[in-house]
Design brief:
The complex is a heterodimer of chains A (211) and B (314). Chain A is α/β, with parallel strands linked by helices and 211 residues long. Helix content of chain A is 28%, strand content 21%. In chain A, the strands form 2 sheets. In chain A, strands 5-6-7-3-8 form a 5-stranded parallel β-sheet, with helices on both faces. In chain A, strands 2-1-4 form a 3-stranded antiparallel β-sheet, covered by helices on one side. The longest helix of chain A has 18 residues. Classes of the chains: A alpha/beta (211), B alpha/beta (314).
Chain lengths: 211, 314
């Protein structure tokens, strides 16, 4: 097995997907290549399959046809996935029976500086998820996937529920980390101003989707 | 800002707190909204923007009288000059005060949406309202057959439009809209705002709660900026332009400069958590120009046609 490190290309090759047999296709023959360090915004109307494609890229769903390649090869079946995803509903992405400290350090331990830049208080570590607001939870959800094993980030509307100040704050951390490590990003968003601000290329999903 | 007339809605020094239970028999009061004041006049759209968890929705629920059981409200609520107590809220909500809730889960899952929009009443009244519903549905591009569907059969955007339809059916003097547009496509969101403007022109006061600043800028006459359960600034919409030179409070300025279409600049730190609020100015720990004086009491004051809660604003 070769070194699956930084500088790998994430590629969706001819990906088609539907949720059930006989149900309509959500994605058909989608091709998307994202180079190392490249930041791609994925835009399109609601219901056009942006979140589905994100889940496929991050390995949460297997495409019905076609494949997703990381550095030219399919994902390994086990271990830490180098492609990590952050979703749009932080309250659904955390274990309600774990305290925040455990949730954050499940895979790695971020240092104090990173916590501070993300605006996370030490006092929050002992809290349960229901005791934090959506914006506060999302900071944890983003930071916990920025571990050293992460080489690529899929962001599905990660800042839609945040106010402008918090949005700028979390994106600044994500972009800094991405730049420092040469991490690629696929970001789903409705906000064109945000897409232009954080991404180097904008892809309209309906244009590359063959349904 | 003062229009000489009586405001439709007058919120004065309202505080909302929750009873929380700790270990064993320990019970404490958690104050989440502090001394909040806000006015909405007839014909005016006032937008409320601010961080999530800053108490925007709680204010809406307080006005409607639908706070959860363990919440307690202090302060003064007035509707058209009369005290808006529990009895008055019951009497007026759904008639003179309409509500567009944040979540589409507010629809009754066991009732066809048409009946929910028409509401209860005598047979003849219901018939009249049926006609009105057809007009409203047409306006929001809802098929007439939609009335015969149950909420689970609607898409997110359709459910949202049903909720809005319900609120604009009657002769409301005040509409409280809590995040009415997420899930709506941009054109439709804009159309909703145009409809609000029409209602306002007919004399309705509208309180629009949103975190989409773009929407607030497009629709509102005045914008109130919420932070940690308090209003930091109320300003005419024109002041929210450029880099916010005309704004009064440092947080409003930061808010505007953080927009992706503006500077996308972040500020450090986070909104203080209810229960461990700093004394004095709530924004002090993130403010560049704080001094010792900011630790004292900071009251809302009028300034340049707006209001601000900052001792240094000029």
């Amino acid at each position: 097995m070769q070194n699956k490190g930084i500088g790998q290309v994430l590629e969706a090759k001819d990906v088609s997907f539907r949720y059930q047999k006989n149900s309509p296709w959500v994605l058909k023959g989608v091709n998307l290549t994202v180079g190392p360090g490249e930041r791609v915004a994925l835009v399109g109307p609601s219901g056009s399959g942006k979140s589905t494609l994100s889940r496929i890229l991050a390995g949460y769903e297997k495409p019905c046809q076609g494949e997703v390649l990381w550095g030219g090869e399919p994902f390994e079946g086990s271990g830490y996935c180098p492609v990590q995803m952050v979703g749009q509903h932080p309250e659904q992405a955390v274990n309600p029976r774990w305290k925040m400290g455990k949730i954050l350090t499940e895979c790695w331990e971020p240092d104090e500086g990173l916590l501070q830049r993300m605006g996370i208080e030490q006092a929050w570590m002992g809290r349960w998820p229901i005791e934090l607001s959506g914006g506060e939870l999302q900071r944890f959800c983003i930071l916990r996937v920025l571990g050293p094993g992460t080489k690529f980030l899929v962001c599905d509307e990660i800042s839609a529920m945040l106010d402008a100040v918090t949005q700028a704050q979390v994106w600044q951390v994500v972009l800094e980390e991405a730049r420092r490590r040469g991490m690629g990003i696929v970001a789903v968003t409705h906000n064109m101003a945000l897409a232009k601000r954080v991404c180097s290329r904008i892809v309209e999903l309906p244009k590359i989707n063959g349904i | 800002m003062e229009r000489g007339s009586q405001p439709v809605l007058n919120v004065e020094d309202v505080s909302i707190s929750f009873d929380m239970y700790g270990k064993g028999m320990e019970r404490r009061k958690l104050e989440v909204v502090h001394k909040l004041s806000l006015r909405v006049h007839a014909g005016e759209i006032v937008a409320v923007v601010g961080a999530s968890g800053s108490g925007k929705s709680l204010l809406a629920h307080a006005i409607l009288g639908i706070l959860p059981g363990n919440a307690r409200m202090e302060g003064k609520l007035e509707f058209c000059g009369k005290a808006l107590d529990e009895a008055a809220q019951k009497e007026r909500r759904g008639k003179e005060i309409s509500f567009i809730p944040q979540s589409v889960e507010y629809l009754d899952p066991l009732m066809k949406v048409g009946r929910q929009v028409i509401g209860v009443g005598k047979r003849r009244e219901r018939k009249q309202r049926m006609e009105k519903m057809r007009q409203v549905f047409a306006r929001y591009h809802l098929d007439e057959a939609t009335a015969e569907l149950y909420p689970y059969q609607l898409s997110g955007g359709m459910a949202r439009r049903v909720l809005i339809s319900g609120a604009v059916m009657g002769q409301a003097k005040l509409i409280v809209a809590d995040e009415p547009t997420p899930g709506l496509q941009e054109g439709l969101a804009r159309e909703t705002m145009e409809n609000f403007r029409e209602l306002a022109r007919e004399g309705c006061g509208i309180l629009l709660i949103t975190h989409e600043v773009g929407l607030a800028l497009q629709a509102a006459d005045r914008i109130a900026v919420f932070y940690a359960g308090s209003v930091l600034e109320v300003a005419p919409v024109e002041d929210f332009s450029g880099q916010g030179e005309k704004l009064r409070h440092p947080y409003s300025k930061a808010f505007l400069q953080a927009l992706p279409q503006n500077g996308f600049q972040a500020i450090e730190g986070h909104q203080p958590y209810a229960g461990s609020l700093p004394p004095g100015c709530l924004f002090a720990d993130r403010c560049q120009s704080r001094t010792q004086a900011c630790m004292g009491e900071v009251r809302m004051r009028s300034l340049r046609g707006g209001e601000v809660r900052c001792i240094y604003a000029e």
